[in-house]
């Protein structure tokens, strides 16, 4: 099973030959399925996808030719990037860096650290379910 980038490197004549070959194979697989002789039914969907791949590449080239541009490989979409994390210096001026993702989370952490520094036994509830202990 060739992938799309391998197929894009082929000439139009070779793509048309592959398309005819895949269609013949799909016809044979459908006959085998109808007569109960097909052992690997997954092969039918693989060949169907190969036909679709070749047709897509041929159509891309046809459109590129009509628009007068190169029919090279289509670049992949860039990966989705997460929102950047802001780094702030610690409030006491030390070299330590504090990473803050959201103001609400930072406030919860600050409340918890204040409670621990003051010697309070009950740490403020972090998950909002009302109980102070998490099991």
Brief rundown of the structure:
By secondary structure, the chain is mainly alpha-helical.
Largest sheet: 2 strands, antiparallel
In spatial order, strands of the major sheet run 1-2
Strand content: 5-15%
Which geometry do the CA atoms define?
Answer: elongated
CATH topology of the largest domain: Helix Hairpins
What does this 3D model show about the protein?
The chain is elongated. Helix content is 52%, strand content 6%. With 135 residues, it is mainly alpha-helical. The model has no long low-confidence stretch (mean pLDDT 78). It folds into two domains: 4-67, Helix Hairpins; 86-117, no CATH class. The longest helix has 26 residues, at 42-67. It contains four helices and two strands.
Primary descriptors:
135 residues; mainly alpha; Helix Hairpins; 2 domains; 52% helix
């Amino acid at each position: 099973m060739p992938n799309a980038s391998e197929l894009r490197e082929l000439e139009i004549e070779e793509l048309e030959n592959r398309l005819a070959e895949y269609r013949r194979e799909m016809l044979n697989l459908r006959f085998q399925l109808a007569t109960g002789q097909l052992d690997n039914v997954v092969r039918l969907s693989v060949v169907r996808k190969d036909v679709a791949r070749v047709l897509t590449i041929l159509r891309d080239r046809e459109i590129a030719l009509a628009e007068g541009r190169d029919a090279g490989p289509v670049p992949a979409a860039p990966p989705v990037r997460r929102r950047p994390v802001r780094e702030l210096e610690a409030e006491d001026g030390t070299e330590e860096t504090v990473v803050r993702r959201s103001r609400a989370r930072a406030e919860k952490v600050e409340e918890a650290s204040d409670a621990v520094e003051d010697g309070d036994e009950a740490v403020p509830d972090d998950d909002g379910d009302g109980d102070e202990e998490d099991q």
